[in-house]
Amino acid sequence: MHGSATDKERVGESVVSHSENQTEFDRRKLLVAAGLAPLAFSAGRVFAQESRGQPLPQGAILPEPPGNQMRWAIVGLGSFAIGQVIPGFGDAQRSRMTAFVSGNPDKARDLGARFGVSDLYGYDNFDDIARNDEIDCVYIVLPVGLHAEYTIRALKAGKHVLCEKPMASTSAECEAMVAAAQANDRQLGVAYRVHFEPTNLEAERRIKAGEIGTIRHVQCDHGFNANPQFPPHKWRLEKKLAGGGSMFDIGIYGLNTSLMMTDGDAPVEVSAVYSYPRDDTRFAEVEGGIDWRLRLASGISVQGSSSYCYTPYISRQRYFGSQASIEMQPATTYDDNNLILDGNARIEVGAGNPLGQFAAQIDGFSDAARANTPHRTTGEMGLRDLRLIEAMYRSADAGGAVVKL
């Protein structure tokens, strides 16, 4: 069921619209607010220097001409879309925005004017994208409860889809999304940006090169203190929009990133317990925290925690090996990740600008869509993670009983 435009406005875009107006502007967001086009970012600077006859920076990569770039529609213009996704297109080499979808026409028109995007849609005419040949890919940046519906509708419209994480509210919805991609011969990816983030890629390289020996244990903790008065937090505490609690929103980073680093080592069992104040009124609809343990086929354990009760914001990954360990804190942020290799000496490793992860993810999906081959972070990966999270909740509901996978 598509639902009426009125229902969609009330359930989804009304929440997104409030969060859009609460954006805290950092440097990149200020550029957006000031109306500066993508020339403020590196790809634009390359074009500008070339057009003025100035020498290009050593090693600079020219973007594809606009006519060769994959064309994207952004669905949902909330704070994350405005603050991270849209600026990411400024650095993208093989991707450009051609359409916006929002329940706020004024905002869509304003952003469209600033970024040269003229094709604007609301949720009432979303399916009309099927007739727009200027859209190749769709990026779903909506509350989780709306992911499945709009992903499936975009796939049926013949577009490739990159969907924000978590993929959906339930594994059944994920299965329907994967089936829709297969039925329409389109690519479906989940926006696990950490797979494109330089510091995490460096950690992955070192682990797979054997620099810490054999992994023995992984520990991950992710969380923040949810404020129900702050609109970007408020919808996360509502089951219909968020799908689930902290594990869906912040804990999934620890789960997915740990499995990225232990690639090929299949989970075989999971256990979990709820860990938050049970009388906390914030968590009437969703869980506020969970401690979990995942056992892999090799015998390695991955232990994690996820919480809406942590102060300050926590993003930490630790990989313990037979010869050394890797510590990342913060580990999965937008712009401030670091890596310490702890062996005979502690070495802080530099790995590149984390802000590049958004452009790399977008271009990576554009490449997959152009070739119609699987993206690095597929819909099947998103389905796997939802099944694991559901198993955690089943264990926690049973007081921590082990759930076989």
Automatic annotation (TrEMBL):
Pfam families: GFO_IDH_MocA, GFO_IDH_MocA_C3. Gene3D superfamilies: Dihydrodipicolinate Reductase, domain 2, NAD(P)-binding Rossmann-like Domain. The lineage of its organism: Bacteria, Pseudomonadati, Pseudomonadota, Alphaproteobacteria, Sphingomonadales. It comes from the Bacteria. SUPFAM superfamilies: Glyceraldehyde-3-phosphate dehydrogenase-like, C-terminal domain, NAD(P)-binding Rossmann-fold domains. InterPro entries: Gfo/Idh/MocA-like_OxRdtase_N (IPR000683), Gfo/Idh/MocA_oxidrdct_glycsds (IPR050463), GFO_IDH_MocA-like_dom (IPR055170), Glc-Fru_OxRdtase_bac (IPR008354), NAD(P)-bd_dom_sf (IPR036291). It comes from Croceibacterium selenioxidans. Keywords: Oxidoreductase. The keyword Oxidoreductase applies. This is Gfo/Idh/MocA family oxidoreductase. Residues 202-326 form the GFO/IDH/MocA-like oxidoreductase domain. Residues 70-192 form the Gfo/Idh/MocA-like oxidoreductase N-terminal domain.
